[in-house]
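Supplementary notes for students who missed Thursday's class. We covered one full example, reproduced here. Read the sequence, then the structure, then the short commentary at the end.
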Amino acid sequence: MRRALRNSPRQDGPATLRRGFVTPEGVDLQLELGGAGTRASAFLIDVVLMLCVLVAASLGLFAFAVAARAELAGILWLIGAFCLRNGWFVLFETSGRGATPGKRLMGLRVIARDGARLTGGAVLARNAMREIEVFLPLSFLGAQAAMGTADAFLTIFALLWTGIFLFFPLFNRDRLRIGDLVAGTWVVQTGAHALAADLAMVDDRPRRAFPEAALRLYGEFELQALEDVIRGRDGLARTAVAATIRRKAGLPDDGDDDGFLTDYYAALCARLESGMLVGRRQTDKYGAAR
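Structure (token representation):
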């Protein structure tokens, strides 16, 4: 009650990407969706890492092809490339972090849009669609180009097909891929969190003393609202709240609204906490301690 968990400030990502995310326990986490540029960067990082793995595996297969049949090595390479590009995303996203190395570097993770646990079926669905969106048409185009049978129509069709799916997230407010729509997933930012300073212990200066009648005016709900006012940047709001408390409690105005509110917050917090220790709780100003 005396500390507030706050998101660290962000410089990237417009406010329109913030969404309510209600967990099964009923907690609204207010997450920020990953932007299209951030997701594209994460995907490129993953592609580069997969290419590094593929190059290392190709060198091993080349040595195998010298000692054995080249046709068998080629088949193994194709199977390995297919398993790598699909297994890479599925295995990493089904882990506890819900993110590939590229997503982790860019501060992203995959979650279920309904607030439930991310399932393996959802991960398989979203990544199976990536095969149709990107890898399958480009692989087919590359194979045809290697055989010298890729004409202009085939090239334009494959690039247009891939481009439509690649740019699809730009044309919906939640930046969803087709795979996200099918699987019911979001890709969200995983920002760091920090505990704000305890207002009841901000310094060691002498504090104002308040009569019991003044502290009985408010409960836990008002305490949290008062904390928001103190931490906010609205000076007029602090002045108005301080004047209201003084008027209701019959306290004199000493001209120091910020100090008054901080001291009143600390005293009210201490009273409510001490009451809870002996089984008396006051949830708001309308209910007496019980």
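Commentary. Residues 36-67 form the longest helix (32 residues). The two ends are 18 Å apart (CA to CA). If anything here is unclear, bring it to office hours.
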